[in-house]
Design a protein that fits this description.
GO terms for molecular function: lactoylglutathione lyase activity; metal ion binding; methylmalonyl-CoA epimerase activity. It comes from Sphingobium indicum (strain DSM 16413 / CCM 7287 / MTCC 6362 / UT26 / NBRC 101211 / UT26S) (Sphingobium japonicum). It holds the Pfam family Glyoxalase_4. This is Lactoylglutathione lyase. InterPro entries: Glyas_Bleomycin-R_OHBP_Dase, MeMalonyl-CoA_epimerase, MMCE/EMCE_epimerase, VOC_core. 19% of the residues lie in helices and 42% in strands. It has 146 residues and is of the alpha+beta class. It has a single domain, classed as 2,3-Dihydroxybiphenyl 1,2-Dioxygenase, domain 1, CATH 3.10.180. Strands 2-3-4-1-5-8-7-6 form an eight-stranded mixed sheet. A hairpin with a 5-residue loop joins strand 3 and strand 4. It is globular and about 45 Å long. The model has no long low-confidence stretch (mean pLDDT 93).
Length: 146
């Protein structure tokens, strides 16, 4: 039986990466783990921050996503939520294709085919109506992961 792996990150949509980076750094004590970069295939500009964990370790990783133009899927989210907010949660799996078949076998709506995500590994999304109201990203575990 297929099982989800660890929570990799929480995706937060924002109208301004710059403002969100300042907030997470200055208020939440987070550190930037990747410089912001455009991900045109997803229609977003992305960066990752790590919140502080216990004893100087890294806590939870946050993916900040800003729309790249009006055709971005995040553009509609920001239009409905002008301040931004939680967009998705991302879980790791060892085999993305096996995971896709498993979710579909459970009757869950997989949104599109596996494609390269911000971590450079294959991802897909599962419709929030099938996941207790939470848009869920499924990500193949990156090779350099623990």
């Amino acid at each position: 039986m297929m099982k989800l792996g660890r929570l990799n990150h929480i995706g937060v949509a924002t109208p301004s990466l710059e403002a969100s980076l300042a907030y997470y750094r200055d208020v939440m004590g987070a550190t930037l783990t990747h410089e912001p970069f455009d991900l045109p295939a997803q229609g977003v500009k992305v960066c990752f921050v790590d919140t502080p964990g216990e004893n100087g370790t890294h806590g939870t990783q946050i993916e900040l996503i800003e729309p790249l133009g009006e055709n971005s899927p995040i553009h509609g989210f920001i239009a409905k939520n002008p301040a931004g907010g939680q967009h998705h949660m991302c879980y790791e799996v060892p085999d993305i294709h096996e995971a896709k078949k498993w979710f579909e076998g459970l009757g869950k709506r997989v949104l599109g085919e596996p494609r390269i995500g911000a971590h450079g590994t294959l991802i897909f999304f599962v419709h929030p109506k099938d996941m207790n109201g939470v848009l869920t990203e499924i990500m193949e575990t990156p090779r350099e992961a623990h």
